[in-house]
Amino acid sequence: MTQPTLIGREHLHTALALAASGVPVLPLRAGKVPFGNCRRCTDNACGGRPNMKTPGLCTCPGPCHAWAAATTDRNVIGSDVWRRAWLCASAVAYHPGGAGLTVVDLDNADAITWAREHLPATQTVPTTRGEHWLYQGAMTSANGVRPGVDIKSTMAYARWLGSGSGTMTALPDAVRALATSKPTPARPVPQTVTASVPGGGGDCRHRTPAFLERGIAMAEQRITQATSGVHHAVYRVFLAVLSTHGRCGCLTDTHVARLFAAAQAKGETTRHCTEAWTNARTTLGL
Fold it and tell me: 193 lies in a domain?
């Protein structure tokens, strides 16, 4: 039995245990991102929301719709299609809002210090860089409500990192206020790009500058038009741009800054943009 199979079985066991307790789960692949859409579901042509019994929505059996694929149905989780996903998954994720929960994602020590001073104590789960604070109650998700602070609840997913410690308390008004008081983001001035641009060296297929400009403009538009699963939409757009323009050296810091600015206008943080860009480069071997 191979190591990936052992890990996959552990993920499946964890997912089934969570589902039994009423927590909707889904597998994540490398880079902490959901599995890509199957061919018939590309660009959400199917409706984009599987495992839900509303007429007209997608009936795809695969876990290919980010948070909307999260389910508590053990027959779905243990199906052949999902088992193949678990075998190559890197982590288990869950839909906090679907479980009636809200996760305050604290990304660094400063954010944790702020939370300890301003939010009521609750169940706490250590993360790679900070902590997840879990509250009982669902709300609208929001990114970047404060430096290093994201809120994950409805229409979002969070990695399952264990049950942590402490007693979960009711969702406080102080957390709800973070989302409601967050200003609606206007299109920001592009910030200094923190992601590296591929050096190129491959054959250039861009006979005119208009080809690259059109591609970047279309990428900005796809990010702007995303109505759900913004994390995944940004990653997919970055992946598409890099697969087309990443090997010939045509991309510049200015192009990347435009993509980051479009993502930030949808509520993404610079950190999330950088991670999505890095993950896309890794996937393509750039």
Answer: no
